[in-house]
Amino acid sequence: MADVAVPAFPESVSDGTLVAWRKHAGESVKRGEVLAEIETDKVVFEVPATDDGVLAEIVVPEGTTVTSGQVIGRIDVGAKSTMAASKPAAELKPRPAPPMAPTPPAVAPATRAESAVMPAARRAMAERGIGREAVVGSGKGGRVLKEDVVRQPEPVRAAESAPVPAAVVEPTPVGSAARPEKRVPMTRLRARIAERLLEAQQTAAILTTFNEVNMQPVMELRNRYRDAFEREHKIKLGFMSFFVKASVEALKRFPEVNASIDATDIIYHGYQDIGIAVSTPRGLVVPILRDADRLDMATIETRIKEYGDKAQTGALAIADITGGTFTITNGGVFGSLVSTPILNPPQSAILGMHKIQDRPVAENGAVVIRPMMYLALSYDHRLIDGREAVRFLVTIKEMIEDPARLLLGV
Q1: Which residues of the chain have pLDDT under 50?
Q2: What are the contacts of 174-179 at 24+ separation with CB within 8 A?
Q3: 83 near 109, Cβ under 8 Å?
Q4: d(CA 405, CA 217)
Q5: How far is it, in rounded angstroms, from Cα 135 to Cα 258?
């Protein structure tokens, strides 16, 4: 037998929750195949099989808190599964479920149609009488999780057993609305997000300053070189790389915006590690562009795309989201016109981008229509004075409205 153990967590992670088993006891497994998923307050870890064989035992059930190195299952190395061979072929075909289908045994193999359904979700579907086609999965690769099933309203079942008093079976009056409620535990990631947001509100003196930027120069430059850029670098040219470059230059000019407070000390960072906020089905994560001052625009766009893909599939590593000296968040992708972003502790500032919208503006005494974006800079007033915050944001505005400054460093 070979033990299936929890991977070693980084020092910043003490424990996690075993959220899903990808295999049942008795199923064949191959070396490197993912057996289980463990969610921490930062990322989701996948537990791979260390050997070929059969998953002989599940020691720790789903929903259990686990720690580094803990044994959660065992593999019978070199064994062959007999689960399918022990059943007649006719029994392997999907059958219509009875109205009150019982919970399937934990060791029953998943049918082809259920291969994307986590075991806990499959049990919940059976208990609630919900069909697979009624549930949209939010897990990695579209897998159906238990919370996806709980999110669905439970279907009304016909009363087939004991007689029910007539008063109970009277139809609901037309036009009345049901008032459903559900109670689900927070995921570890969502709980950590809540904790950090509350920490930021309670420990920092947060203020926000606003400005607006004319996006036409950047849009014209992007349209002029977009095709050539994509042919040369095999990546699309977006707006985020311009704002990253502008932020790097502004951080160099205003080092207090790139600093953080540690008790009674101020730590001035001699590098620019910029976090890019990414929304995922599990919550907000902020992967880091390390040494952003050394990255060209093609590398910035490539890294952002890689991080975005990893975030959506739950493949971000702890190293990808740890650290950072400044953060950029783009609410404009969701249609936000203006907002006040909240700090990402221990950072002292965060830049908020918003929706680009055509608006009338005055230029040289004439009213013209320009694609405008509101910018917001939230900052910790304990460290950053209002003058520096405003000048920092104006610096970004000037560089976006005259992109040649990014090349010339003026």
Answers
A1: 85-115, 156-170, 174-176
A2: 178/153
A3: yes
A4: 12
A5: 45
Q: Which two tokens stand for residue 22?
A: 């990808």
Output the pLDDT for position 158.
42
Q: Give the whole-angstrom CA distance, residue 399 versus residue 22.
A: 50
**Separation of alpha carbons 231 and 218, rounded Å:** 19
- Residue 153's pLDDT is what? 63
CB 325 within 8 A of CB 271: yes
DSSP label at residue 117 = B
In Å, how far are 22, 271, 308, 391 from 58, measured between CA atoms?
A: 11, 46, 33, 59
CA distances to 45, 72, 270, 395 from 248, in Å: 32, 45, 11, 11
- CB pairs under 8 A, 24+ apart, for 97-106? 97/126, 97/129, 97/131, 99/129, 99/157, 99/158, 99/160, 100/129, 100/157, 100/160, 101/126, 101/129, 102/126, 103/127, 106/24, 106/25, 106/58
Residue 220's pLDDT is 95
332, 356 Cβ separation under 8 angstroms: yes
pLDDT for the residue numbered 89: 39
* φ/ψ of residue 260, rounded to 5: -145, 160
Q: What is the pLDDT of residue 20?
A: 87
- pLDDT recorded at residue 88: 41
CA-based angle 139:143:144, to the nearest 5? 90
Closest CA relative to residue 47, chosen from 26, 14, 25, 70: 70
Strand 326-330 to 274-276 pairing: parallel
What DSSP designation does 50 have?
Answer: S
Joined tokens for residue 64: 């259990």
Helical H runs in 72-205? 119-128, 146-150, 188-203
Specify whether the CB–CB gap between 368 and 204 falls below 8 A. Answer: no
Counting Cβ atoms within 10 Å, is residue 386 exposed (0-12), middle (13-18) or buried (19+)?
exposed
Q: Which residues form the catalytic set?
A: 381, 385
Pairing of the two strands 366-380 and 206-214:
antiparallel
| Cα separation, 13 vs 348, whole angstroms | 23
